[in-house]
Write a structure and sequence with these properties.
Blueprint lengths: L1 H41 L3 E4 L7 E4 L9 H15 L7 H15 L2 H14 L8 E7 L2 E7 L2 H8 L2 H18 L2 H28 L20 H6 L10 H16 L6 H18 L8 H19 L14
Antiparallel strand pairs: 1-2, 3-4
Length: 323
């Protein structure tokens, strides 16, 4: 019976998440095509060709070539747009779907967490995180290696993973003179920073307890704790929304948008996302209802970044590379 509940609950959540993001995606795609067509009428495109690959051509306007550290300058505007976008008429369906998914999942937080942990024990998966820490400075862990699959999955959702990935793509771009790789590294960084700031703001506003610290069913909500209180007892206030899942969603969406021909990105990314989500419920770091808003924020942050930085590319651009 418990296994059946777990399977049914997982399928239900997957359907809700899929529906939410399909709704959110439709208006964004429509708007982006209109924006591109307007830009095309203003100026003729200019071709930038990679020296390392004669097949790679990026059509952009001369005055739209990203400058160094463009992602840092964009962040304030991204934050404003991220706050306004959900309440625009064209995005109300996505907002309602995200709110509805969160509201429905609040009713299954407790049983879902118990079901996931019981199922994990039954198949021999640890419900605790454990790391080997070869390097630390005071109480700060500078380097850590997971000792079990649960810890590995949890670590995948940390910001360091996205930043290492962005750094690797940037180095690749510099070595191969691959402009798209360099711009993608900037997109990943910009999305990570703007989305990270936004999730931290919401966490401090909502003040929800993590499951392992819960003093009541579903965790207590203590809106707007003081800065010092939040810093001292972070796990009592930072459950909602999940920063880990927002980070992975932002990363996967950015890569999928910047490399649309790489069709494996979405299935692999969403699979990893689902496993990380289950791992965080398994370790009682998050409630399952912490996820819909996190996914929406990560997705929307990536879309805002992409269409702001790539709005000057023509629809006829050709992008192929060795990545």
């Amino acid at each position: 019976m418990r296994t059946k509940f777990f399977v049914k609950a997982s399928l239900t959540i997957l359907m809700v998440f899929t529906y939410t993001f399909l709704l959110a995606q439709i208006p964004q795609e429509a708007d982006s095509s209109k924006e591109l067509s307007k830009e095309q009428k203003k100026l003729p495109p200019v071709n930038l060709q990679n020296e390392s690959d004669s097949n790679q051509v990026i059509d952009v306007k001369k005055d739209c070539i990203p400058k160094k550290f463009f992602y840092i300058k964009n962040i304030p505007g991204d934050m404003v747009q991220l706050a306004k976008a959900p309440f625009q008429k064209k995005n109300l369906k996505g907002l309602v779907a995200t709110a509805a998914a969160t509201g429905l999942l609040l009713f299954v937080d407790e049983p879902f967490t118990k079901g996931v942990r019981q199922f994990s024990r039954a198949i021999g998966v640890s419900t605790e995180t454990s790391y080997y820490i070869p390097l630390k400075l005071g109480g700060t862990k500078l380097l850590k290696f997971p000792r079990n699959p649960t810890s590995f999955l949890y670590q995948l959702g940390e910001g360091a993973t996205t930043m290492v990935l962005a750094g690797g793509i940037y180095i690749f771009g510099e070595i191969k003179n691959d402009k798209r790789a360099i711009y993608t590294a900037g997109d990943l960084t910009e999305t990570f920073i703007s989305m990270g700031i936004a999730t931290q703001i919401v966490k401090r506003i909502t003040g929800r307890e993590s499951p392992y610290q819960a003093t009541q069913k579903g965790g207590r909500w203590s809106p707007l704790p003081s800065f010092s209180e939040y810093q001292k007892h972070t796990s009592h206030y930072d459950a909602f929304p999940s920063g880990h899942l927002a980070t992975i969603m932002g990363t996967v969406t950015t890569l999928a948008l910047d490399y649309p021909e790489k069709r494996w990105i979405k299935p692999v990314g969403y699979t990893v996302m689902g496993l990380v989500g289950l791992a965080m419920v398994n370790t009682e770091v998050h409630w399952v209802s912490d996820y819909p808003l996190a996914l929406a924020m990560g997705y929307l942050s990536a879309k805002i970044t992409h269409f702001k930085n790539h709005k000057c590319e023509t629809k006829s651009h050709k992008l192929t590379d060795n990545f």
